[in-house]
Amino acid sequence: MSTGVPEGYDPHAFPPFAVTVDLAVFTVRDAALHVLLVERGQDPFRGRWALPGGFVLPRESADEAARRELAEETGLGPDAVGSLHLEQLRTYTDPDRDPRMRVVSVAYAALLPDLPEPRGGGDAASARWWDARATGPLAFDHDRILADARDRIGAKLEYTCLATEFCPPEFTLGELQQVYETVWGVELDRPNFRRKVLGAPGFVQPVDGPPRRTGGRGKPAALHRAGGATTLHPPLLRPQPTDTPHSRPEGRTP
Amino acid sequence: MSTGVPEGYDPHAFPPFAVTVDLAVFTVRDAALHVLLVERGQDPFRGRWALPGGFVLPRESADEAARRELAEETGLGPDAVGSLHLEQLRTYTDPDRDPRMRVVSVAYAALLPDLPEPRGGGDAASARWWDARATGPLAFDHDRILADARDRIGAKLEYTCLATEFCPPEFTLGELQQVYETVWGVELDRPNFRRKVLGAPGFVQPVDGPPRRTGGRGKPAALHRAGGATTLHPPLLRPQPTDTPHSRPEGRTP
DNA sequence: ATAATAGTGTCTCTGAGACATTATACG
DNA sequence: CGTATAATGTCTCAGAGACACTATTAT
């Protein structure tokens, strides 16, 4: 804030930037991570799919712009949008990321439970869920934003209670495990998963009544709600794909 | 990118934003975390201290702007600045964060070893290191940016090899431990710290020759260099202030 | 009965924390 | 000598992984 081009802070002496938000909206559906994309109706990248987003208005913060856009794209009410998890990822500032003009974009990640009809009624006439692993090349630098968003979500599942954001208000531990397995792309041992989830204070609460719900033709599962905690102690670490699991020649030299 | 204000993308139809970078430059000096601040010479916040920073130029990315500003403020050469750790934190977009105009700021954190004369020769005539715990109220929203930067650095020490960025090219394990203790504000058990650092593959490498260095009047310590790894496996978790059933940080019972 | 999912119990190994002990410098 | 710092070793417990086993539903 001390150096730069506009010496006298003349409001018209600085280079004009546009500021947008881009949203990576995720849900878990059919045991696969899905992301909400919109089809572009005009150049550049006409016909390509892109992350939903839009301009930040003069009197709103980027967070407010993100929630506004999210409401427009998903058709959710302002109350629902206000309560769901929205997280700033990072800001993309490559001078050539938009061929028309200088645009910096603040990227956000949002997590939704699998909704009955999530496609909204805004101006995004052609919005749909895509398998997050199988999106074609997206417009602008959205491939990179999407990849960064996936990495961030996966990492945050380890040490936060974020996974419950993918679930409906009441859920089974099997559904919660499905979230982890889907985002991480691994299979987890159910008894161990149970032990860790129930052992983390404030992660989940058993629903008091004895009601249960069936997921198919097995034993009905007890229902849980999200607990009050936001961070996970101890963390739920994902299994490490790096080479040998527990024998390391590097270490003590005799 | 699909909705918003400028329907036809007229380059003059969108609200004008200025984009700046703000830098939280940290070093460890005298067993305390220090941050580089500059004194503002003009309103608003004249005479208040602020994080260094400046405008993003029309043809550079925010990362490039951050490195350019860092070189100006510290007086380091472009090669030195190009090699040190610079990390985007998040972007601050409150519409009223700058009383003059609409400015969004991309915040960065940088880590430096304790340099002989770190104060640079740019236009920041009055730049100096401050104890990061004892900065007065800063200009703009820089108190919040600084707090966020401290949190991020502390968290990243747990699962990355970032701590070596605070050290000179060759360092002792005692100096590395000092970094952790200073950033986290806790005392660590030296034998356990040693075991974990040496057990993490690629974190540090012993310097081949038998040269040693003294820190005062004790036994000289072996020198190490940063290893090739960037992430820490297993992580070096900071002791939890939340009382756990079995471990007590303040456990000196006679 | 068989399949499928939910839930419990147990064993072992790793890593963290606490702490004792030895080694090598300085005064 | 004592003191200060570096380095090694040892003990114990918590948590993770692997896996056997039981429980309850649908077909």
- Into how many domains do the coordinates of chain A divide? 2
**Tally of contiguous helical segments of chain A:** 5
Q: Which overall shape of chain A is indicated by the principal axes computed on the Cα atoms?
A: elongated
Report the radius of gyration of chain A as a whole number of Å. Answer: 21 Å
The CATH class of the largest domain in chain A is identified as: Alpha Beta
The SSE string of chain A, one letter per element, is EEEEHHEEEHEHHEEE
Secondary-structure class of chain A: alpha+beta
What does the oligomeric state look like here? Answer: homodimer
Describe this structure in words.
The structure is a homodimer of 254-residue chains. With 254 residues, chain A is of the alpha+beta class. The first copy, chain A, folds into two domains: 15-157, Nucleoside Triphosphate Pyrophosphohydrolase (Alpha-Beta Complex); 162-243, Arc Repressor Mutant, subunit A (Orthogonal Bundle). Chain A is 23% helix and 24% strand. Chains A and B meet through strand 1, strand 4, helix 1, strand 5 and strand 6 of A and strand 1, strand 4, helix 1, strand 5 and strand 6 of B. The structure holds a DNA duplex (27 and 27 nucleotides). Chains A, B: Belongs to the Nudix hydrolase family. Chains A, B: Residues 16-152 form the Nudix hydrolase domain. Chains A, B: GO terms for molecular function: hydrolase activity. Chains A, B: Residues 245-254 have a biased composition (Basic and acidic residues).
